[in-house]
Write a structure and sequence with these properties.
By secondary structure, the chain is α+β, with helices and mostly antiparallel strands. It is built from five helices and five strands, in the order ββααβββααα. The two termini are 22 Å apart.
């Protein structure tokens, strides 16, 4: 299913996302994004760790998992536009980065809570809000994407 939220276009997939296998891994991000466009992918898997992939308007991309910082990585982003610093600050304020996470009473709930905080922080910071009712009721336009071979 797909739609728009503000200036964002979104795709909701029911299984593991496949778009990145074709567009980013095989064809390159220039196929997917025009110069000056931002990109965000929030992947929520049933049996794997969720992750966020974000690309700023300068074309730099980073992927992170729950509890990770966008800036504190083995290869920190150049961040010419300050977009990664702003996103990281929003994530820290929401307690979505492990260093700022207040913790949970039950340690088994920490990964789920970090994922929830991460997705909430990214959505709020970027102004992205998906229409949950329409998605759950199947009211959005839809297309079947075959798995890449």
């Amino acid at each position: 299913m797909f739609g728009r939220s503000g200036e964002w276009t979104y795709v909701v997939e029911t299984e593991r996302s496949t778009w990145h296998l074709i567009f980013l891994d095989r064809l390159g991000q220039d196929t997917l994004l025009e110069q000056g466009e931002e990109f965000v992918c929030l992947d929520r898997f049933l049996h794997e760790t969720p992750w966020v992939c974000y690309g700023d308007a300068a074309g730099e991309m980073r992927s992170i998992g729950p509890g990770d910082s966008v800036l504190e990585t083995a290869f920190p982003p150049e961040d010419r536009l300050g977009a990664f610093a702003a996103l990281d600050a929003a994530m820290r304020q929401a307690g979505a980065v492990r260093a700022t996470f207040p913790g949970c009473e039950d340690a088994e709930d920490e990964d789920e809570e970090l994922a929830r905080r991460l997705f909430t922080a990214v959505g709020e910071h970027l102004g992205l809000s998906l229409p949950r009712r329409e998605i759950e009721q199947g009211l959005l336009p839809a297309v079947h994407l075959p798995l890449p071979v």
